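SAMPLE LOG
Freezer: B-3
Tube label: C17
Construct: single chain, 496 aa
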Amino acid sequence: ADYQSLFSRVDLRLCDETPGIPTDSLLHDYQRGKESLYMDELLFQYGRYLLIASSRKGSLPPHLQGAWSQYEYAPWSGGYWHNINIQMNYWAAFNTNLAEVFIPYVEYNEAFRQSANEKATGYIKKNNPDALSAISEENGWTIGTGANAFSIDSPGGHSGPGTGGFTTKLFWDYYDFTRDEDILKKHSYPAMLGMAKFLSKTLKPTEEGYLLADPSSSPEQYHNGTTYQTKGCAFDQGMIWESFHDVLKAADILKEESPFLRTIKEQIGKLDAIQIGESGQIKEYREEKKYSDIGDPRHRHISHLCALYPGTLINAETPEWLKAATVTLNNRGDKSTGWGVAHRLNLWARVKDGDMAYQRYQLLLKKYILENLWNMHPPFQIDGNLGGTAGVAEMLIQSHEGYINPLPALPAAWRDGSYEGLVARGNFVVSVFWKQGLMTQMDVLSRAGGECVIQYKDIANFTIKDAKGKKVKTIRESKNRIRFATQKGNTYYLNH
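STRUCTURE (predicted):
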């Protein structure tokens, strides 16, 4: 009963039948070319199972192997790697209706906050002493890649300060998907504000008027055999932008005002996070010209696209950047780790190319999944499972652009189907039914109230009724976008 209270919130149906053969045989058939839509469903839900089973209130967060290891010393210490892995573990928490499972990471982060503040003070003192505040709290807090149940690191070496902004994105989403102001006041805003204070002090001005993180590193990239350090790589600049952007939104909601908020409001316009290179690519480094000038061109990390996913800086309102992101994705390729493929899956979903996203999901199943459905890094590493689940949800619903976008990256293979219980920002619980690739029905439960904005092809011609069958008044922004007011606890039914 305890488990099902979480797991049963979401149902995904891509086929009508449940095969009557063991899972390992089903997987082997899939890997030999006999694809199964049931297998697509199963791996998605298995990721939700793994997350529920390894992240509950009172426990530690899931480490690189979740909660499972046969070793006294697990691979890579069974730690919480903060240059993508621990974040990826939680990407599916919010849109697959499992916000409560994020609590262990909140508790972990807050338990280390004092140590993280000391790390921030030490980092600034070493790298930008002119920005150091005599008041320790004003230096914020930071966290580097290496962390475990007993200690945390500072940024440095092969990953820059952007690891912190990468982390607080989760705290913003924790609020944005729940719209719980108590969460915002007690947990999300303090975490985001402290991180923004630190990141603000990592920036140094250039002659051109920009502010760049210095030193800066794109996670785990090497050049000519050594860790490549620079100024203002896309990962650090993008994650600093996300941090400042989210803090300013949160402060506006809470009606907070301070000189520091005015400072980052000015700084955010000088980050120049996204640049396009001579190959038409998103540049990983400012000094890069053509793709692959610097670093491994097929690297497992694709950190310069974190501003596309899980970030929001690259979006439908920046079509040139979106196009450049696809150039980078195609050049980077898919020869990667299991979690690396999972990140690519999410990125292609954000580009809204369902067939390309689905190819990466199938690649996970065909190359990186063991008989018990664990993901191979190799060896076993759970982030590929959890990131794969997040990617499927991202194919089926997106809400980062100011509206709910049902079926934004639906592949041709999922011609008919339905899902129930996925969550959009604003705490709207969404169920969608589709036939021949087109949505026929959409149900929206408003758990927090507020305005609901939906974008979908020809959505203005859908009829919208409340639970009493009364027609709902809507504002038509275009034939593909509508908005309407909702009441907390009410469900709204859209039919074509």
